[in-house]
């Protein structure tokens, strides 16, 4: 019988950690109370390497499928295959995916003219150079990926954020046919600004970054980067302008070379008219008539995920996945290299312990360095499509750390309610950057908190809504318990929609190390917090997934829904009682399972532990049943109330039609049975 | 550490069985070589009780939701809750389901007249009475469930089996508008005969049972029941005439009382015009003009499943489900009471051992007595909808024994290829009825065999195609490894489409005990075989699910597909190589897993065993991904070649259009990725 003791203190800052783990022949793990002090020498190493890694990753632009991207693939592979500090196994997974690029020979142009005859070319072919980074010939010119090529011209109209109501309102007073709309970022998805415009006869759309949204109003050259963290007047936010995530030619299938591809004309969710992003300097000089010359083209190119694994000792068939994308729009110092350097530092530390035979987690850990995220979460989505069954069956949780540090004020977490607690536990064991005696947790609760009926005041954990990063396919397609972690802003100090140079050529090592995280202390805090969560999920005997916290969230959503809807639903003879009963069943099943878990720690019955862990692991799958829940995945999409129900209610209220109230009733049944189904998985197994 | 020894010999006839099972504290099971002789006294008991149970179940008609149905619910509950011979727990699950009935006050009528003026009422209000059974006032009049009410009249035309091509052909020479079509059973689904007819303007459809299809041509009163097993001239086959299985008002949702129901006008897959089954005596007297008076009505009624469980000792969260429907059309002696009496006898024997503390299986066993199967597999489908997540995650296999005995010549099995082997093993341990020294297996191979590349000559196991019984939702909706077992005909002696009195008022205890299985010996053989399979699935340390047999089937399908399609696909530049590679990956993963399993028997690592068992249990789930495979579930539907591909190929070949060849390419990719995905679940877990 082998006994191993594992130090995981290295992830816990100066905090004292009380975890010791015995892994026996029968896969039994018991907790001991060995007190381990964090070795300070490690902290220094960690700091050194993080900065070094970040510098290495951001030396050149690494847009998906370019030479710079390949260079980062090689960096990852070299480190993960290192015999002393690497993982058990690392490899490349390649997909052939449909991307969109500007034409280097015919730069996109936006020109303006006084009513007739176009005269001045405003749009810059490259942004202003402040550091040598921006002069790199590999910097891609600003463009809207997946905008069609075209040469529209027309009168310029200001369409605010390009939402459906923005265009509707505008259309009341202006004939939009033949116009070019200028919109600011925010409010609607990037591609949606063009999709919403086309029905009104708009022929082209420009998108600019509004200084009020991103720069707290500052606009002048000497107030912005390199003098501050604010976006220079010539900076342009790039981005993917498609609505659906994953490769567009192979929906629900992995985009392998031989995979069938749908005809390009069958693609949905992309701009039907040309669209182009511009900087605010140019936006404010645009007047009257505008001509756009967009030369974008599409191409199927090979994009790689880099994968690495640490094999689990007792339960190799249970996976904790930790991932981040690797590709950037330009140098991507913050997006995504802040997250990539954190991941590489984590794998170096864990890999070293594995290679030295000091430690091996109970469950397997899979690291994913996703490709082509910027084009619409493509690498991670193709991965989930290729390994759909295996991942659905075996994945305990997915941890996403994309932009690790937006700013250095506080932790920010979005997650399923069931993993709120493990994030809290980890955050309590890590020092807040620059605050020796305050934990990440205590700092966090100060910036953002809420009142829980069970726990009192606790940090506010957000919803994993939409498809903002690579967690999307794990959450919406596979139904896997997920979280997204980062350090972020002090909202009392800035209203910036996101860090100002997001998706521009100014997102460089220089910028990151001067204005975002000097000293990389917040990077360290994220690495320690996320690493702590990762180890707890991979190595705890009983999974740190809490179904009672899930119940509390469902109760919150239920109360909101009852307050908002019950009165009017009664008028339509639709009862909310079945939903209330379902939530009550879930609560009572969760309470019971918690009781069972309390008794398990002292037992050493591996199959009983496994059974309970399977219940916890698969809890989120109960909210996925694509045939029963075709529109929305029950409540999952992350609204503060059940989204399928909320949508249906809003529709019915505005139309007033009986058939729409019928749909509300349908969504109530779907939701009720999803929650009942989840409760059935938590009650005694037979 | 508790050690239990279990006799399972009672299921194995006079054969000698070498199974002893140790269930240890760690859930470890090891085989010992205790030799147990089958106790002969048990055989007599078994026989006595089977006949008795059968008699009890068939005393009165028990159509779904009638008083007779409720009586069978009480019989099941009483036996399954018996403190000495019952199960651990038994209960009723009730659903409110949409059914269709004839109007007792306005019997359906078919009348004929000489061109003008209707004169003679031919259609019998009740069939001829040969035994008191047929005189029971609870015998439902013959009708087509889910036929609309209506009073069409028109010229009678003979439309063969009512297939699309039958009507198409007929339409070349006859103007079908305003006619009433007479069709014979077979060839097309019941409801399809009316669905296919309606587009041609046919106003009503009659269906009769052709003596050539069912009676080997015999027609006269003194050659048929009660003189033989053949259908009397006045016998009428009832049935459900809807196309989709499950409750029609609650697709993909359990039909609980409060569940939302779609508007009746949105129902699809039911006859758009009145349809009525008749006996052949009447069919042959129908000439010229016909008038139908159909008074069917629909009603939402409460239908019950009766559920019972034996809790597993080591892995209670793994389920083997054994089921059969309980409802009949009339007395249902063969359909379904032959299967129900087999199930009750099995539960009595197993329950007694459990209650006496002699035995408890490693995994949980769930018994399901489904309601309203005759109306379209409603009870079993609602059950899978209600417990979708739990059942998907935990069910090892589903065993269906509906009509246990069609005739007493040979075993018949339809199953996923992975459980062929456990059926063979069981069949080798049971004596064939009436043949002391021949096993069920040896008898079977004599009647129906095929040549396997791995095993040489073996019995032929059929495909679980379509939705012929309650396995449908388990196979097509949940993706659970399933089988359907029965004793059946000597095909050299009869061409009857099915046993002749199927779904008529002559399907009685008298009929069953005189003409189908005098002495109930075939019932016993089925009980022993199915029970043996059940115990092996529930109690073996390593699941008796064989992935190499799965590989062999895939190779067979692949070879067929390559022979049929490869040549022409090349012309369209579509390669079959990726499919070949996928099947090869599957084979190699299966071979490897078999090797791993060989090493496990001598080990006692519960989590390693569980890991492998999870791989085996979930193998069939890999072929289910409703978003990726929206039309057909990969190859599962059970054709001798991949059905999605075969359909697409047939379409493309007949249309010749490039877009249809595109769809062939799409289906190749779907199939390839389904098989690759399955292979990924069999390879080393990390």
Automatic annotation (TrEMBL), chains A, B:
GO terms for molecular function: aminopeptidase activity; carboxypeptidase activity; metal ion binding; metallopeptidase activity. Residues 305-513 form the Peptidase M28 domain. Pfam families: PA (PF02225), Peptidase_M28 (PF04389), TFR_dimer (PF04253). One of its GO terms (cellular component) is apical plasma membrane. It is found in: Apical cell membrane. It is a single-pass type II membrane protein. Residues 153-240 form the PA domain. The chain crosses the membrane at residues 7-28. It comes from the Eukaryota. PANTHER family: AMINOPEPTIDASE NAALADL1, N-ACETYLATED-ALPHA-LINKED ACIDIC DIPEPTIDASE. Belongs to the peptidase M28 family. M28B subfamily. This is Aminopeptidase NAALADL1. It comes from Mastacembelus armatus (zig-zag eel).
């Amino acid at each position: 019988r082998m006994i191993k003791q594992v130090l995981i203190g290295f992830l816990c800052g100066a905090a004292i950690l009380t975890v010791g783990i015995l892994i026996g022949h029968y896969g039994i793990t018991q907790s001991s109370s060995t007190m381990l002090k964090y070795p300070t020498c490690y902290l220094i190493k960690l700091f050194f390497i993080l900065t070094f890694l970040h510098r290495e990753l951001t030396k050149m632009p690494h847009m998906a499928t370019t030479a710079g991207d390949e260079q980062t693939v090689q960096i990852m592979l070299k480190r993960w295959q290192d015999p002393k500090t690497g993982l058990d196994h690392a490899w490349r997974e390649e997909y052939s995916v449909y991307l969109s690029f500007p034409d280097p020979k015919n730069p996109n142009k936006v020109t303006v003219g006084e009513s007739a005859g176009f005269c001045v070319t405003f749009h810059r072919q490259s942004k202003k150079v402040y550091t040598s980074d921006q002069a790199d010939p590999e910097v891609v010119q600003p463009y809207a990926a997946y905008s069609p090529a075209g040469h529209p011209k027309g009168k310029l109209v200001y369409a605010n954020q390009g939402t459906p109501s923005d265009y509707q309102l505008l259309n009341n007073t202006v004939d939009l046919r033949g116009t070019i709309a200028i919109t600011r970022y925010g409010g609607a998805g990037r591609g949606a600004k063009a999709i919403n415009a086309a029905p009104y006869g708009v022929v082209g759309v420009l998108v600019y970054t509004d200084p009020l949204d991103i720069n707290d109003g500052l606009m002048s050259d000497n107030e912005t980067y390199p003098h501050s963290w604010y976006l220079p007047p010539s900076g342009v936010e790039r981005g993917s302008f498609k609505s659906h995530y994953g490769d567009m030619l192979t929906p629900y299938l992995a985009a392998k070379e031989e995979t069938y591809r749908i005809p390009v004309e069958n693609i949905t969710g992309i701009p039907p008219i040309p669209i182009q992003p511009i900087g605010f300097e140019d936006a404010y000089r645009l007047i009257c008539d505008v001509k756009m010359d967009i030369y974008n083209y599409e191409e199927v190119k090979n994009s790689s995920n880099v994968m690495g694994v640490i094999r689990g000792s007792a339960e190799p068939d249970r996976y904790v996945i930790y991932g981040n994308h690797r590709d950037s729009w330009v140098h991507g110092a913050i997006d995504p290299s802040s997250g990539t350097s954190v991941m590489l530092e984590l794998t170096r530390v864990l890999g070293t312990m594995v290679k030295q035979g000091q430690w091996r987690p109970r469950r397997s850990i899979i690291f994913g360095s996703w490709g082509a995220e910027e084009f619409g979460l493509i690498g991670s989505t193709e991965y989930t499509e290729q390994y759909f069954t295996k991942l659905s069956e075996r994945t305990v949780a997915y941890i996403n750390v994309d932009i690790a540090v937006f700013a250095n004020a506080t932790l920010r977490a979005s997650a399923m309610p069931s993993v709120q607690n493990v994030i809290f536990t980890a955050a309590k064991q890590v020092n807040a950057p620059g605050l020796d005696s305050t934990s990440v947790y205590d700092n966090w609760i100060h910036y953002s908190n809420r009142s829980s009926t069970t726990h009192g005041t606790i940090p506010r954990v957000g919803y994993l809504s939409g498809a903002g990063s690579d967690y999307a396919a794990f959450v919406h397609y596979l139904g896997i318990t997920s979280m997204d972690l980062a350090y972020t802003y002090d909202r009392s100090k800035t209203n910036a929609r996101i860090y100002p140079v997001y998706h521009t050529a100014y997102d460089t090592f220089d910028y990151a190390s001067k204005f975002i995280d000097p000293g990389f202390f917040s990077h360290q805090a994220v690495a320690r917090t996320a690493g702590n969560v990762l180890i707890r999920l991979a190595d705890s005997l009983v999974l740190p997934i809490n179904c009672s916290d899930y119940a509390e969230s469902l109760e919150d959503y239920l109360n909101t829904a009852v307050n908002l809807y019950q009165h009017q639903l009664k008028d339509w003879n639709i009862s909310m009682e079945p939903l209330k009963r379902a939530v009550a069943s879930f609560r009572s099943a969760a309470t019971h399972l918690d009781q069972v878990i309390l008794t398990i720690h002292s037992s050493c019955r591996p199959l009983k532990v496994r059974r309970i862990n399977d219940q916890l692991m698969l809890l989120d799958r109960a909210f996925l049943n694509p045939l029963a829940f075709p529109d929305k995945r029950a409540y999952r999409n992350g609204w503060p109330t059940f989204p399928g129900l909320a949508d249906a209610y809003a529709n019915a209220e505005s139309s007033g039609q009986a058939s729409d109230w019928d749909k509300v009733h349908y969504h109530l049944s779907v939701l009720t049975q999803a929650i009942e189904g989840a409760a059935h998985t938590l009650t005694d197994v037979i």
